[in-house]
Structures are given as C-alpha cells and as structure tokens.
Amino acid sequence: MSQGTNPLAGFDGGLTSMMSGANTMDPVWQRLWLRCQQHDWQSLAFIGSSKRDPDGVLEIAHGMARLASELGQELTVFDARNLGLKDMGRMLAQIQSITSRGKRCIVVLKLVTENATTVPMAQNVDAALLGVFIGETSVIAASRTVDEVGRPKFLGSVVLNASLAK
After folding, report:
1. Is the pLDDT of residue 89 over 60?
2. pTM, entire model
3. CA distance 145 to 57
4. Domain limits of the chain?
C-alpha cells in the first residue's frame, strides 16, 4: 500500500471478517490500521460503493474509528456518500476544523461515476483509500476514480467480497 504503487493492487486481507463488524483484535483490522499509519494523513477519503452492501465502506470506516478509540486516538467519520454541491463548502470547513486541532477524520465517498462531489472532496483531503467490491465494482469505475482523483492521493485499496456481505 505504498505510494507510487498501483492502488488497484493494494491492501487485500480477506476482509470478509470486516463486514461482520469490527473485532479490533482481528489481525485483518490491525493490518489495515497499521498500513494506513505508514503514511502521514489527518484526513482520509474512503471511496467505494456497493449495491448489495451500500454501507460496507462506511462500516469499515466506523471500525477504523473504534480501533483508533481503543488506541486513545480520536477519528471522526463523515458519511458524504450523498453530498451535494451546495454542502461541499460546509463539509470541507468541518474537515479543516477537525484537522487543524490535530485530530483525524475519514470521509466516506461514492465512486466518481456515482457522485460529482467525490473528486473535489477527495482532492481536498490528505489521502484516499479505494474500496473495491469483488464481482460488483467495475474496473472501469475503479480506474476512473483513481485517475480523476489522482493516483498519488491513494494509499491503496481495500478489497471486499460483496457476495458475502450481509
């Protein structure tokens, strides 16, 4: 999951267990957390979507927040999957307010093909992760998301098995 590598070939850790709730003692959760800590970020966009598990990426973001809390850190999660143009400024101001106090946040967004605010939101945070649902996320949609946001912004990808979700 290092910068400069292909984000579509990033973190893949058998994340079936992640979809059943955050057991932060699970090594899969811990690996995701540790991989993300290899990079300097205060704000992180987590981009992805699934018709079969529409809350899958959001659940992982909340799991990361629980893990951060167990480690004595504060991590705020924003659900910006349906963010509209008129609300972007307010959301960016909230992110800036949190990060200026030395706190971290994750902003959950949809693929660029599903929401026009994804690109500007992701470009205004420090880093991004791509959530790829096996059998559901098209290579074209994932590639377009990476290309439009900018490849250097991505820490990597989280591969999820949509057929096992809920």
Report:
1. yes
2. 0.86
3. 15
4. 7-164
